[in-house]
Amino acid sequence: MTSTMHAAHLAALRADRDRLWGHLAQVMRETSPTSTRALLGGAAYQGACDRYQAARKESA
């Protein structure tokens, strides 16, 4: 894989990651914290909360 192909692949992965985090943020806004925690599990829920808060700070 050339460096250009590698960079394009990484950019696509980042876009997918950002799209998934956006979807998760929407789910977190629309559901209760208890439901989201049950869906994700404790550690994943905390990580998602941290990421969501960081994204809110970046967009402000």
UniProtKB/TrEMBL annotation:
Highest taxon in the source lineage: Bacteria
Protein name from the UniProt record: Uncharacterized protein
Originating species: Luteipulveratus mongoliensis
